[in-house]
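[Discussion] Sanity-checking designs against the backbone

I'm trying to build intuition for which residues belong where. Below is a structure token string of 162 positions. I'd appreciate it if someone posts a full sequence so I can compare it with mine line by line.
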């Protein structure tokens, strides 16, 4: 796996830490790369991920990484978490008008007050540290839903927070 682009093109002057690139491999099909050797097939075909899906993965990945340590302090360092991003592009405007995030956590055994605190910790961590959300939110409404305890799914602690 490449850690630098091949010499098909000259590296731009701005190339450095944080740079990523995508090489065209066929019609409407690319391979996205980073300097750590990760390659992601981008496109609409089998085995490829669409740019919109990448956007949503970037959003939930950033939220999860931003909240990981603060949630670990509340739930224990080995807590399980799954993040989802739901939304389809508006075909007429060719853009996402809304992306709904859902975070699944095992909240069983926590009181309603503790669950409310977990939701607050998550929201504050994302607001403070999620570069991706802070970048796209001015143009896309992003919501978060914390779920995981069916006994409190209907109360305010499990509802959208924006």
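Best answer:
Here's mine. Compare freely.
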């Amino acid at each position: 796996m490449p850690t630098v682009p091949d010499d098909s093109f000259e590296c731009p002057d701005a190339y450095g830490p944080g740079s990523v690139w995508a090489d065209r491999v066929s019609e409407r099909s690319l391979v996205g790369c980073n300097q750590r050797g990760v390659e992601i097939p981008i496109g609409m075909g089998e085995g490829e991920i669409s740019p919109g899906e990448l956007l949503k993965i970037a959003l939930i990945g950033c939220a999860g990484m931003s909240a990981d340590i603060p949630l670990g302090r509340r739930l224990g360092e080995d807590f399980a978490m799954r993040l989802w991003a739901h939304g389809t592009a508006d075909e007429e405007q060719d853009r996402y008008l809304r992306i709904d995030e859902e975070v699944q956590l095992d909240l069983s055994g926590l009181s309603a007050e503790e669950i409310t605190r977990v939701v607050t910790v998550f929201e504050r961590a994302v607001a403070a540290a999620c570069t991706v959300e802070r970048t796209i939110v001015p143009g896309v409404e992003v919501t978060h839903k914390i779920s995981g305890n069916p006994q409190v799914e209907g109360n305010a602690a499990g509802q959208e927070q924006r």
